[in-house]
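P.,

For your records, the input lines for the assembly:
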Amino acid sequence: MEATSVKTSATFSGGVHPAGNKELTSHKPTVTAAIPKRVVIPLSQHIGAPTKPLVVIGQEVKKGEKIGESGGFVSAPVHATVSGKVTAIGSFPHSMGTDMAAVVIESDGKDEWVSGLRETTDYLQLSPDELKKMVSEAGIVGMGGATFPTHVKLSPPKEKTIDVIILNGAECEPFLTSDHRLMVEKSKEIVEGLKILMRVLNVKKGYIGIEANKPDAVEAMKKAAAGSPDVEVFAVQVKYPQGAEKMLIKAVVSRTVPAGGLPMDVGVVVQNVGTAAAIYDAVRYGRPLIERYVTVTGRGVKEPKNFLARIGTPFSQLIAEAGGMTDDAAKVIAGGPMMGMSQYNMEVPVIKGTSGILVLPKAEVSTRSYGPCIRCARCIDACPMHLQPSLIGLFVEKGHYEDAKDYNVMDCFECGSCTFVCPANRPMVQWVKRAKRELAKKKN
Amino acid sequence: MEATPKEQPKEQPKAQPELIVSIGPHMRAEESTAKIMWTVNAALLPATLMSVYYFGLPAVLVIVISIMTAVLTEGAIQKMLKKEVTVADGSAFLTGLLIAMNCPANIPLHIPAIGTFAAVAITKQLFGGLGYNVFNPALIGRALILISFPKAMTTFTQPVLNIMAIDAKTMATPLTVLKEDGVAKLLELYPNIYQNLLLGNRAGSLGETATIALLLGAAFLMIKRYITWHIPIPFILTVGVLTWAFGGKGALFAGDAMFHMMAGGLILGAFYMATDYVTGPSVRSAQIVFGIACGALTVLIRLKGGYPEGVMFAILIMNCFAPLLDRGMRSKVFGKVEAKGVKK
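Structure tokens returned:
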């Protein structure tokens, strides 16, 4: 019955140690955010084809009603997150930086569920295909931030045998604690979600990987998994980017995903713990993905908090519920400080991949310009993919994109470790993004 | 391309502070080029103080002139080229200090000034400034003055332990004695040679005398992870092994490895100059090769070449190969090897 083990030494080589800053919110129980008066629900909240709107302006909708139909296999439907009336369909600011198509719903304050939600108590008896369909219909995407449609990951090509599922509870981004709180507060649901995933992929072994800096989450998950010998909880070393798929797989099952390959190439599927909880909700109660845990934190908000918030809630509302910004607030980031995107408009909505809203005060925002590369090799030591970011940066700076490609720029997943450690403050991630864009242009 | 602090859409419904928008990561390590350079300068402090202790006022003058020339040259050239003046980053200061460390105490002061000027103006700034120089500036500066003023650069005095440095007697360095007159003479002049080498009580350049002070600074830099073992340790060990094997008279494995590892500028060169980020390789495996090659060249020059000491030329020669080593020994991408083998 002993279903847990601890491997705190297990990790990948490289990586960095940014200050965690999680103590701002890690001990605070999640509070349910107010139901927004008006939600803006982007029709594209995932990687892949945008959805097609199913509603028209003026239409009454109920909570959980599908309002955007999946636009293809690699796509995920979106649902109304409040009950009320559709007041606009058009282009609205999106946390990805550009305006995107969205449906606006004014809440009627009744918060009524759509009828016909199907509850299933013996869900593990359902067939893998039925379960997969429920996941797909619920609009579930990777909730760690990558927002890749989950049902796609659950449909590996026939020649790939999956024998391991890893739930990602590493939460290696500084400041964020939404997964941490979810694991403490909804550990049973996460384990049930993992079992559903194991049933869908016919996998006998499920792991939950958590950074060792969340002992209460490790404890809670171990407790929840105690009756399940096929589920193991791993405490992995605290190091950024421990939560990157390839790095977590290395730490938990010592498998190396081939460069340019996917986890399924080594028989692994990785899902975020939040995704697992959403899968449980979808399968057990028939509820689509309409809300998520969001950490609103940083020394730029007065009362940092963890929220359970509806998709479509404007950032401004959650920031206000967290006491509002301080006078010296200078930067607002969707996500964590390492890979998150800074925002200019506080009316952007929470989407399925919004794990946190981070507000940094002026003193913590660097506007230092960058200097010449002194080839100190700190970035080479830090790169979890073992690339040479210094050289890639020098190439891109001079417009030599092909050379950057020759130095494996395409293998970079933009974790930002190189830029974090650079003493000359060189914007390596920015250059990598530029190189990828320029190389893509050439290809077309 | 940098942060654009003042972009703010006008139709913003609520009052909000001016927000800074930039590409992540939005957190940075507490590290800067200036901090690194000043830390290396600080690591040289024990050796600098020891040189003043042994050689007195002349040492102070050489140090001050070298550093001043370096800083003024860098500032003047950057002004002339209308570039940002970056003398505060400590890198010109370090070049000046290193050249001083490489000079005898009683040298006429225009010589270190010329060496420092050449180091900063030609080797560094004309190649594009910090980060773009091919050769270690301090070593080029030293090579230039060694070739131009061979007598002044090789006339060393005995340590005087006297601030005004009166009665300074000239004396050959242990390596020169070994080269010119052999082991017997060396032991006659320096009966406690290991102790002399370790504590610095011997003739030599300012910075190469007190091995223990240099090691102290190097240990500090290694603990702070500002330098790693990959270059200096293979460098020094290679010198040790090769001099042990070939440094003896007549027989193999009769050489005095300990003497060769502590003598001359090896400790200074290996820990403070071969480790220069800009002019050495940055891939770790390439750094080990770089260190071994520096060691082999040093021994070749010491035992077979015309100069008693070979550290400087060894590092300069290897500086040329640093980019090649980096390209030839690229780091292996995570998952790249398995990419061929794994077929599931």
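Two observations worth noting. Residues 1-13, 338-344 of chain B have pLDDT under 50 and may be disordered. DSSP finds 17 helices and no strands in chain B.

Regards
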